[in-house]
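dumping this here before i forget
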Amino acid sequence: MNAGEITPTSARLWARANHSGTYFVQVAPGAFGGACRRGARVVARRGNDNTVQVQVRGLRPDTEYGYRFCAGRRSSEMGHFQTAPTPSSTEAVRFGLTADLDGLYRRGRPAWNRFDVLGAMAREAFDFNVILGDVIYADSVFPSPHAVTVPAKWAKYRLNLRYANFRRLRGVTGLYSHWDDHEFINDFSVAEYGRKHYNRGAKAFRDYNPVTYSRRTGIYRSFRWGANLEIFLPDLRSFRSAIAGAGGRCTNPTTGRPDIAPTLPASWRQRLAKYRRDLNNPVRRACTDAIADPRRTMLGSRQFERFAKDIRSSRAAFKMVLSSVPIQQMYGQALDRWEGYEPARQRLLRFLQRNVRNVAFLSTDAHGAFTNEVFLRTLEPGGAVGTGIPEAVVGPVASLTYSGSLGSSFAARGFTTELFKPPRPEGLGMSCAQPNVYSYADTVVTPTTLTIALKDARGEPVMDLVTGAPCPPLVIERQ
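structure:
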């Protein structure tokens, strides 16, 4: 069960049947029971792995609905969702967000955990939730077959739905789902891996997640939640250029893999080489040239123009860009993120600076919990140049954490204590840095304030690695 694409008057409802055939959906305010009555008709087909979706309209704003799917006298469990308030409503809005769900089993047990983050989110009183990318891992970091075909990807979605916490999250309230690279393959772009690979990943994702899609803008969407909030979900996979490291341009000779920090200034690479010996090697010129190439794009021109028009014209008190990769400068693991597409990053940030007030980024993919202001440049010659735009980064649910991606807790602590936490210009000046946590964001938006609290898999505040204290909420006052 899943209700997605929630608006004040509509929702897209999803379920998977055990068998192909005709079913009916019932939708009503609150909870209901009794015998199944015929509602909207849906057909489960093998070509969609017996998944069904139906768009329901004519709903009342700011209302809790129950829904179920029926066949004869048999019915599914009941799901719930809350419709968005009208654009004039000033009531507070609260939502949860996380990402990165690798449900792989090893030796009969979950490779990571039982999606405990999702269980914590399901216990919160959120108006809606967001899974911001990597809803499955077609390619796990553990040795396992890569799910390339549509049926193999379907099997990954079914695997993740074996977890009770995931099913519970999808049933308690509305859930917006978004893709990133692992629905396809690590660091995916159509330019590098091809249209066929994209089409397979897109079909499986759309079969298992109720989303709207167009060939012009992919799964870019925006949703208004009252007077306080509008969320924007850019599609960062359908139109991006190939990663700068494609063709081996960024390979580090020590590791034989893409360089861990190609955008980090040389003096900082030498300073942090005691934590990662491969940083002693200079970055290849072909790599830095590719990162700086203004022809490379993250959004594509059509999507950028649509997004720019939408966010500039939004009348919501706060505008939140939900980005499936971070946009702040973190320097480590930069190639696949906005930092690896620097001219595109600069273009987006300068546009927002000039045209949009009260905007913030809430992002995933770094596999840790981090908060900071987004800077146009931070450690580069000439000194730091800020944007005034904040970003919080959360996740994962179940995958390798940022510490693991750096190779060791020793390296992660070194990067955190020497690079992430020290105040600028001695470092990045992060208000929160915890590279080894499963986490989610608890966001509350009122007419005057946007607050993002970072929470762990128990629903408790994330603890900063350096201070040992709870990470302070990211608080933004309306300007």
